[in-house]
Every structure is written in C-alpha cells, then in structure tokens.
C-alpha cells in the first residue's frame, strides 16, 4: 500500500548505479530512506486504525444485505426491520453464554466476556434510541443495497434510517464516525 520507501529506494539506486546497500549511516540518502520508511509505517498504522473503525459499519450492512437476500431482495415493513435488528443484536448472545458457562463459579468474567457484554448493552441502547441501518423499507433502496459489493466508497451512496424499538423510523446520516 504505502510506496514512498520503494520509490525512494528506486531513485537512490538509479543515482548510485543500482547499489543501495553501501550507504553511510549518516548520509543524505540513508536519511531519505529512513524518513520514507517511517512515513510508510505511519500511513500503514493510520490505515489499520481507519479499517478497524469502519469494520462494524461494513459488518452491519453485510448482515442486512444477507437478510434481504434470504427474503429475495424485497422491501420489508418496520416490524420485520425490527426483527432483523433484534437478530443482529442477538448474534453475540451464543458466544457470550458459552463464555459465561465456561467460567468457574465465583470467578470474574474474562476480557472477551466483558467486551461482549458491553457490546450487547451498547447495541441495545442504540436500538432503544434509534438503530442506524441502511434503508430496507423502500424498494429502490433495497435494490441499491443488493448491488453493494462490499466497498467502503459505495456505502455513502446508500440511504440510511434509524429504527427504534418502539417502531419509530426516521432518516439518518451516514454513520461516518463509526458505530460502537
């Protein structure tokens, strides 16, 4: 992905007739290589952090896309959308229960168990206030979701809604700040 190191290495090799290995430690060329390497590492860390922040949104959209495929890509009503949200939240229950049963009585929960507990609680709170999902209530939006191939860039073109546990539905913006 980052390529400034390889470009810098290529430029230095061209200047030195193909020899990059024989550089003095404090030379300008070695400093250029070091700076390029540090820059590539920094860009790689930023990309990993961005991917980690974006992954819950991609997973959520993929879940709802799969649910609509099971229903032959038809628009659903609000009650069905609420069922889908409940199922999305419930996907972590089985793992949480197995971790809870594996723990000896009187022992504190594992880190993974605590993480799942917090995640489930956050999802339930979000559902109470308004769970952000792609718009699966209108037919034209369902077609857009069915055409989505998994890329982050196409997510911004999808219309989004918030579905609450009481059945309220309202328009929402793209969740670019991340979810949970």
UniProtKB/TrEMBL annotation:
Residues 1-35 are annotated as: Disordered. Residues 26-35 have a biased composition (Basic and acidic residues). It comes from the Eukaryota. Pfam families: Tma16 (PF11176). InterPro entries: Tma16, Tma16_sf. PANTHER family: TRANSLATION MACHINERY-ASSOCIATED PROTEIN 16 (PTHR13349). Belongs to the TMA16 family. This is Translation machinery-associated protein 16. The lineage of its organism: Eukaryota, Fungi, Dikarya, Ascomycota, Pezizomycotina.
